[in-house]
Structures are given as C-alpha cells and as structure tokens.
Amino acid sequence: MIITNLTIFSEDGIIEKGFIEIDGDKIRRVGHVADFQASDKEEVIEFDDSYSLIPGMIDLHIHGASGADVMDARPDALKTMVTTLPKEGTTSFLATTMTKSQEDIENAIGTIANFMPTQNPGHAEILGAHLEGPFLSPKRAGAQHPGNIINPNVELFKKWQALSGDNIRLVTLAPEEPGGLELTAHLKNTGVVASIGHSDAVYEEVEAAIEAGVTHATHLFNGMRGIHHREPGVAGAVLLHDEVKCEMIVDGIHVAPKMVKFAYKNKGSEGTILVTDSMRAKCLVAGMYDLGGQEVIVNEERAVLKDGTLAGSILKLNDAVRNMMKFADCSLKDITEMTAVNPAKQINVFDRKGSIKAGKDADLVIVNDQLEVIMTFCRGKLAYSNREGK
User: Fold this and answer.
1) pLDDT of 288 above 80
2) Is position 277 annotated as part of the catalytic site?
3) Cβ(280)–Cβ(63) under 8 Å?
4) pLDDT of residue 304
C-alpha cells in the first residue's frame, strides 16, 4: 500500500508532498512524491497537502472507553478498547489498573497477560500494563479507593510482575510512603518506569525518589502536592527536574489552560506526555458509571465522584491534541513528540513504535487541517476511516 501527497511528520524531518509505502505491518519506505514510483500491484491512496501523516499516538494512562474498563478483567472489555481507540488516533496503549483489592488487581493483570499474545493488526495494541496503585498516599487518593491503598511492597510487586509475564511497564506510586524508595529502586533495576503520583511528598522527598529512579510523573498537578511558594511540592519538583517526564490530562478541566501553558514552558515538548486517563464512560452518554468500585457521575464534559472529586476523564487523545496546540501554542511536530516519541521512548519501544521511519511498525494517523482523525492504521492495517468512499 502507498499513501501519497500529504505532509509527513517523519523521524528524519517534515516531508512536504510526501509518500509512505507500507509492506505488511511495517513501514517500507518514506520519501518525497517526486521520488515515488508505484507498481501495478500496489494500492495507492492519494491525499492533498491539507492532510498530515503523524505517528500513531500512544496513551500510557487509560482505564477504559465505550463501556469497558481494564478492571473488568475480561477479554471482551479489552477487545472493546482496542477496537474503539483508533477512532481518536490511538494505535497503542498501556492498560491501566486501579486501586482495588489484590485479587481484583491480579485478575486484571492476568487478563492483560493472556490477551496480549492474541492481538492482531488492525486494532490498537496493548503494550503492557500501567499499575496505578495500590502503592499510593492515602492523603492523595483522589478517585482511587482509599480502603485499598497499601504501602509499597517489593515482594508483592514481584508476584504481580511474574503474573503479568513481565508486562507491567509503568508503576504509579507514592515514594515517600514506607517501602517507596525500595520499590522505586527495584523498578529502575528491572527496567520498569517508576512514576510519582497520588503523592504528598515534599520537595526533598521527591529529590530522593528521583535519585532512586523516578523518571515519570502521573497526571501532573492532579493527585499530588501542588506548588507553594515556600514548598515546591511534587508538582514543583518534577517541573524542575529534566530527568522526569510529566503526563498531562489536557481537557481544560483537570488542568487550567494557563497552567498547561506554564508547565509546557518548563518541560517543553521533550518533557511532556499527553494522556487521557479516560474511564469507561468515554464515547458514551451522560449518566452514572463505575470506576474502581466507586460511582461516578458523568456529564458531557467531566466525570466526578459524588463529592465532586474528578474521577478520570472522558477525553479523547485527538481532542487533547487540539487543546494542547491551543493552550500552549505548540506545533504539530511538538505534538508528535508528546503523543508518540516520548511515550515510546519512556517504555522502551522506540525501536518499533513512536515515529515514522522505514522498518518500524506502520502505526499511522492521517489528520486534516482541523486535526480531525481521517484514517488510522494499526500495524499496517486500516483500523478506522471517516474518509468518503473508504
């Protein structure tokens, strides 16, 4: 398959009037249309220069969509997610757990591990699990169930990692809690991303955690000690340390637009990762839903617990892209870093994901000049299209 005549945001630079050749599930060639010659055997899809081709987006923090949730611990729930997410340009993701009972977490992890080998091109790919809790601070529980929060525990994590088939790739924890630095060091030593989140740590505690191995911050500003002029807190500390990449939920609700711009001025495109943190109500109508065993009230723009606490989001990743460009005045090239390059590098899959380059997986998204998703290819196979005639 050949796609021609659009602007391609490739790993080696922006190509105006470019073409890309897909061979099976891989990218075979990328170049200028002037250098393109097609054989009679190849299917050619033509666009014009008002369309752009960007790398498939990677969501490192997502709980659910279209009525399904990772904590349902059922293969049909994961199937719903992998078929739904390409509509918003997401071609791969980390299936994210919640702070529930140990048995519930183990069921979810086991389901992910069993599902991953069955995946086929044409759907978003689960790259592993993101363990959000239960190793959190009770003071910063947010929408995580406080009754299930426990201290960080290396031996318990080892058990869960074995159950996952070594597919837990990212762990959100409060490193200031007893056992937190030990678990952080273990994660670093075993190649798992340690992320500070749902944490009440002060600046010095965050510094110690970064020294131990924290390289990621879960949903910046949310579920963490905020910035104070006499105590920078978790938010201030991770903004000041270049070795930490920061997730942001850019829906205009979780973080005020001006604070998104403030964070971007500190971290830049190289230090920011866009996530949705979406729950099962995404893509559905307003109503009452479940998140981690707690009732969540959802309207057209947000999801909250009964006490008003934000409970995940209903954000689509392509909407986060539009918001980010509006709030932070960044470019589409910057967006490709925040949605593809950075997450792929963070979980060590950049050798095959996260950019457009010959030899990599053909995870591709075509957007128009309004940043609407027109086509999504997951490992070379069309997963979504709203183009007329397709």
Assistant:
1) no
2) yes
3) yes
4) 75
